[in-house]
Amino acid sequence: MKFDATDGVELSGLLYEPRRKTRRAAIFLHGTGGASIFDSKRTNILAASFAENRIAYFPFNNRGAHLVRRLRGRKKSIGGGMAWERIRDCVQDIDGAIRLLRSRGYRELYLIGHSTGANKIAVYDHYRRRNPIRRYILLGGGDDTGLMYDQLGARRFRSVLERARERRTSDEFVDSSISKLPMSWRSLYDTINPDGDYNVFPYLEIMRGVRLSKRGRFRHVRGIRKPALVVYGDRDEWCYGDVPRCVEILADAAGPNFEFAVLEDCDHGFNGHEEELAELITRWLDA
Asked: How many CA atoms are closer than 13 Å to the CA of 13, on its beta-carbon side?
């Protein structure tokens, strides 16, 4: 189904509803890098598990889905996909999804985010302190800023960051030597700015004793007051080879309202463990 973000951008999603009427619904936020809920094996598996537990399930493609695309707006089309997305735009996407679900009678809402989708939950909570979501589920949240630092090296990272800062309003694509995937300077700056909203999980800064940000680390996470479940796979390939340390760092930053789980023999995408993941989430929601 199609629906509008609150700024008028048209988005598409899939609404799975249980046979018996319910007031409960879970919204799913996918990650970046070309992701789409329509292409993911995880979508139908999670939907089936939620339906069995009488919870409607609403995964949707936010404006950062795919790599490069055009999105319909109220007056004109705009650039979408990873190439042009800014993470703060997730607030309007999520509010649009909430508006749709509430119009259909759903009142007990949960927000699930995978990879960059987990970052978006923290950003959404930061800008929408008073929101109708009851619980958050953060799956494999990533340190995108730190990963770019690791990829480029200290000296080149600072050089690229300065170039991106100077061109932060530009929709032109960056050099392929900086990003193999298409990305505008505006989106790149949003991603690698240590003091920006993207830097939700600054694991590398703590693990390597590197200070990139001037603002408080984990400031988005520290502000979350709702019940939250964090899940990682123990083989998550974006955790610098040390998932336990990343989880430990996050647990030290988070409040007592957070719970943590690590799935064994499981990668970043929870591939092959979708049913186990679904069972974990629904059990926690019903606890």
From this structure: 29
